[in-house]
Amino acid sequence: MPLTTQNAAVPSALQALRDQPMPTEVLYVPRAEVQSTVAGLTHPPLAIIDYSGQPPRPDHASPVMHIHVELPQLAPQELVEIWKSNSPVQMSRHDNWHLARNDQVLFASVELEDHPERPIEDAAILHYQHLFRLIQEQGYPHLLRMWNYFPAMNEEPGGLERYKQFCVGRHRAFEQRERNFERSLPAASAIGTQSGHKFVIYFLASRLPGVQVENPRQVSAFCYPPLYGPASPSFSRGVACRWADGEQLFLSGTASVVGHETVHQGQVRQQLEETLTNISVLCDHANAGGAFSGSLDNLTGIKVYVRHREHYELIRSVLEARFAGAGPILYVLGDICRADLLLEIEGVFNLR
């Protein structure tokens, strides 16, 4: 399975990225240490993301983009996600979108009212169309990584699961943007919140394209058969970027899927092991294609979405042993895109 570069040939895109330093890195820090961590950074962060059941008190004095996602954390010590910038940051607003940019990347977010009893397709197409215009106008036309959070993901108002409705809207927006859009898809996650009424989208886009990476043991999500809905999910398994001082591989939300089918239904330990195999194979495939030269040891910013609270301890014990040197791992309670998937893992491979 070949690697594809977003809107460019692989060699020229990689060479262009090599001339730029790594623009951003993700950190997980204990909530009590956020203020001191931010104060110690050379530049303001691109974004601070808070996962909790209740929104934190807004800090109107802070110019930094704060994003709240209604996913409760499972570990006793709660963590906050910080996207640090390695160059000066400019912040602004564009309609409902919050923007933070440096010389190479744009981080943007929007929070929308969502009603779980209503279809989500129209909201998805509208806001994806808006973000496509936004990245083009701002000069960061290449999506590297996207996150989507909305309630009642596996519910079926109108007879079609809300995740599948979302996929229809997202697919239509991508299709309207360009032909052959499957060759320039970002890494992505879509997770269901188990409470609240917010549809949250945030993304990382770049001035230069990354390299789309697929997993040879999985059917690419954008090629899924109609069994999974009227439109296939529009994302890649990963996107690789090679900078002047290092390499990154943005890992999409990854689960226990082989081919296009869920495997090990109802068996959380086996689903976890299958997920880890998928992550390892994706990294190896990126290596073989020349997009990324790191290994599983370079996986950082690990975030784990857990469907059932009672599975947390088993998942934590396996991952804390497997990734002992990877830094803090963020565990949150959320719904996965298929009702038979029990967990999903994402992260960023960083190699310097």
| Whole-angstrom Rg | 19 Å
Number of helices: 6
Helical residues, percent: 10-25%
Hey, roughly how much beta strand do the residues contain? 25-35%
Q: How many extended strands?
A: 19
Q: Architecture in CATH?
A: 2-Layer Sandwich
How confident is the prediction overall: mean pLDDT?
93
What strand order characterises the main sheet? Answer: 1-12-13-14-19-17-18
Give the overall shape, derived from the CA principal axes: globular
Number of domains: 1
Q: Could you tell me how far the N terminus lies from the C terminus, measured between alpha carbons in angstroms?
A: 27 Å
**Which regions contain 5 or more consecutive residues with pLDDT less than 50?**
none
Main pleated-sheet profile: 7 strands, mixed
Order of helices and strands: EHEHEEEEEEHEHEEEEEEEHEHEE
